[in-house]
Batch of 2 targets.
Target 1
Amino acid sequence: MAITLQKGGNVSLSKSAPGLTKIFVGLGWDVRATSGDEFDLDASAFLLTDQGKVRNDNDFIFYNQTISTEGSVEHMGDNRTGAGEGDDEVIKVDLDKVPREITKLLFTVSIYEAEKRHQNFGMVSSAVIRVVSEADGVEIARYDLSEDASTETAMIFGEVYRYNNEWKFRAVGQGFNGGFAALVKNFGVNV
Amino acid sequence: MPAILQKGANLSLSKASPGLVGVVISLGWKLPSNYSRPFDVDSSLFLLTQQGQVRTDADLIYYNNRSSICGSVELMGDNYTSHPASEWASGNQLTSPDRNASTGGSTGGSTGGSTGREDLEVIQVDLSKLPAEIFRLAFAITIHEAASRQQQVSLLSEVVIRICNPAGNELVRYALPQERGRETAMILGEIYRYNNEWKFKAIGQGFDGGFAALLANFGIKV
């Protein structure tokens, strides 16, 4: 039974699922049925220090850089149309491998060339992002982008962060004005 | 004041108007001015299951099938020119549509003149009578013989879908932006169930392949 978190709500990964070390973020959406440009949604992750910045550009995991230096975060591949059942993009996280100085993993979803193509999440059918326990497939949280982020083009879905020697997940659900490039810069990545 | 949505946005009708049972949906558009050739625009709506498909062809409501089997949906008539869209200022009372007013041609459409005439088609829905397996109502406009006449939705202006309560108070509105698409069939909006509420979504997406592509999308074989 998945918890549908309110914005700002959080859940302790260690308590809700003791021994949980492997999670993944899944992003799914439907192929566009109507005429026009395809909907190309992208899931990305940022490895952040307690200053809220990346150490360097290698801490930004996305379709062009699919694995972090230590192998703790891995993007399983770009999907440009939403073709296929279930999760169309997956980012796997091994919490045990996350370096000490990284205190937060932040997950985002954005629409590729949203502005040029005049697209937003509300135009996409069945766009959902969720965080799942890899071992048993139990959904920890999900966010319905089509419905609840309808006029956004880029958003911070949630974050996994260290708190008193455990990992917690917080659903952020915050749209980001200025597009994805501005968001990436905001975390100290050079684009 | 009605809510004015942008493309992709949605609104809870149940929250905007608690206890809402009857809704009046109007689809309006303006034909191009100084246009001498025939230009026929038709309205249709689809009763859809959770899979986004019709159950049978009878779930298509259009000029040749004006009401649903369940009796919850009725296309009131076209060529509703006695109340053009521009007179529908927010909050105005909607007079009861005259069901005999339809004098359209064989397609039920409207023919363009030199004045850029406005059209308004009205659909009445009783949400309480909709079968439980119907999750969505999709409202569309199509251009008759679009391919041979080389006409697209983008030639129309002031394409608007409005949702009113039975008293005529407008709850929500979506106006199609003027874009240079090649669509000849356009889904303007959808009313749908979501978490025990009725919601409305501004769609504004369509098909270059016209009515046939629209029908195929919702599972109707032609």
Target 2
Amino acid sequence: MPAGDAFSARQEQDIAKAIATAEASSGLTFSVYVGSVEGELRAQALRLHRQLPGAERAVLVVVDPRRNQLEIVTGAEAKRRVDDRAAGLAAAAMASTFALGDLAGGIVNGLGSLMEHAQKAPVLHGQQP
Amino acid sequence: MNTPTTPEAHLRRALRAATVGSLAAVPLLLAAPAFALHREAGDDPGPGLSAVATILIYIGIPLAIFTVIALLVLAPSIARGNRYRPHQLSWWAAPVWFGGPQDEHGGAADRALTGTALKELTGLTSVAGTQTEGGASARW
């Protein structure tokens, strides 16, 4: 298969719109990286995440279509809004759509799932007795 | 295998054979006119089909229908071009970073990190210590 663009213009618009909607409704920043990644995916995703401005409030989704793996990284502040369980749900939803061959749709769905969890009011003192 | 010898068993077997035989015979009898050799009164068969016409009708038309349906099925993916297919190790598109550090969500304009840039990143030492970031991972 020759090298080409990952997404059509329409799909890029859809993803950009999903990111803008998620950011507007949650106050967090969302970022999606789609591409083949060398090395261990989690470590690379963390490095990409640290490059983001305002990484503490950033949610990064890294999708490696060649290895069929994806990684969601939430910053320290974003983690309070999107806990690991919510991120796991979004990751599973994305993976199941990717498995059907729909990359753009899976990303849009996953961003929607992350956004829904981020909208919930954070439980500030849930750990205290 | 022991065959039953009572009269009832014989009758049952005969009935079973008759049922199966009649079921097979009905379609053959219904198709009997196809085997007719004698002209009936009032029929008016036209001239027989030539070999070319036979091939065109019985091979050409099905092939044409087959081609049209195949085109209708394949056309959307052909028009879409480079499509992602899972489990094929077929991803050669350039990396895209939506909402990356370079500028706001521009889609294709944010080709911030190419494959080579990522390799350079691999050389960086990983930050040790407490993990503040959360997240999740998945495979498909």
